[in-house]
Amino acid sequence: MKFSSVALASAAMGFAQATPLAERAQITDADVLNYALTLEHLEAAFYQEGLNNYTHADFQKAGMQDPFYANLKETASDEQQHVQFLTKALKAAGASPVEACTYNFPSTDVKSFLALGSILEGVGVSAYLGAAASIMDKTYLTAAGSILTVEARHSAYLRAALGEAPAAQAFDNPLDFDEVYTLASLFIASCPESNGKLPVKAFPALTMPSMAPVMTGSKVDLMVAGDMMNTSDIYAAFITVTGPVWATLESTGAGEYTVVVPEGVAGQSYVVLTKGNKQATDDNIVAGPAIVEVGMPNGPMGMGSKCGQSGSQASSMSMMPSMSMPMPSASKTGMPSMSSGSMTSSSASASATPAFNGASGNRASVVAGLVGAVACAAAFLQ
């Protein structure tokens, strides 16, 4: 999967012009849980669509041998249970839970489906991590943390199955509400009018003409949607849990830039453009985030040198098919609302989930979003 920068830019322009946005108010626990429910609806719908579109045999043909398919179905079940839990909690607290939207997922085959799934799981981890500080009630903080750890397991499992390091660095990267919404909104076609408006905003999209995995110290190209960058003093910030890692940014004109990947970031990372280089917050972010996969593929999990390094990696990088990002609809009235209300304690029982115990396959890059070296994986499994 190679995301189209032109499609992404067009999507962001249409979204920014058409989406009704509520003014950012004091974030309540109900707001955070409805925000989480919005993301869980998206993930649950994504897995349901993929399992409807692709069969067990399709996954095996793509190099994903048993028990991968069974584990993927458990992942889909987890997302459904997250939806049910958050819905029940919001109702118990007297808040109105948001309903599912209509989505546009640009996967065209098993490989692109799994690659996009890995990206969404990574964004989900960053979303829960970023929202944790806004949850006041300890009961709901624990519940959100419980979901976060499961999302992290999903992410690690898909990354390992697709050839990426399961845990590429020691700390995950948090994303704020607006940053997550900027990414998630590209997959939302429309929402029920009863959901109201989200108290969030989408920043102009930040895209990369080439989205292959990159290494520390390498230079990547960035492009901002439309003619939105008529500002000076623009900087690049890679988001980390300890604060932004500032990177060298050069303007090439017309909203196009190059940036050198700094030390201190790895795996699925996020870069934003900011006005000034003192902070990277909603007040001064002017575009992004863009998703950047930092680090070379490891090869399929458990394959060692059979598919790895030099020739095999180069081959997998050249085998990536293409896929464009979805384009949001012209009208987004009825985006999910963040209902306010005081939260009360509630409980829900979780069913046991079978252990994830291995998968085969290879993805050249989470960011580029495609499985590479499938032939090598298939040969190893024979």
What does the secondary structure layout of this molecule look like, with pairings?
Blueprint: H1 5-18, H2 29-53, H3 56-61, H4 68-92, E1 102-103, H5 110-131, H6 138-161, H7 177-184, E2 188-190, E3 206-207, E4 219-224, E5 234-238, E6 245-247, E7 249-253, E8 256-260, E9 267-275, E10 285-294, H8 310-318, E11 363-365, E12 370-371, H9 374-381
Antiparallel strand pairs: 1-2, 3-4, 4-8, 5-6, 5-9, 7-8, 9-10, 11-12
Structure commentary:
It is a single chain. The protein is an alpha+beta fold. The protein has a single domain (7-381), classed as Ferritin, core subunit, four-helix bundle (Ferritin, Up-down Bundle), CATH 1.20.1260. 37% of the residues lie in helices and 14% in strands. The chain contains nine helices and twelve strands. The strands form four sheets. It has a four-stranded antiparallel β-sheet with strand order 3-4-8-7. Strands 6-5-9-10 form a four-stranded antiparallel β-sheet, covered by helices on one side. Strands 1-2 form a two-stranded antiparallel sheet. Helix 2 (29-53) packs antiparallel against helix 4 and helix 5 (110-131) packs antiparallel against helix 7 (177-184). The longest helix has 25 residues, at 29-53. It is globular and about 50 Å long. The chain starts with a helix and ends with a helix. Residues 304-355 are annotated as: Disordered. InterPro entries: Ferritin-like, Ferritin-like_SF, Pigment-catalase-like. Residues 1-18 form the signal peptide. Residues 308-355 have a biased composition (Low complexity). It holds the Pfam family Ferritin_2.
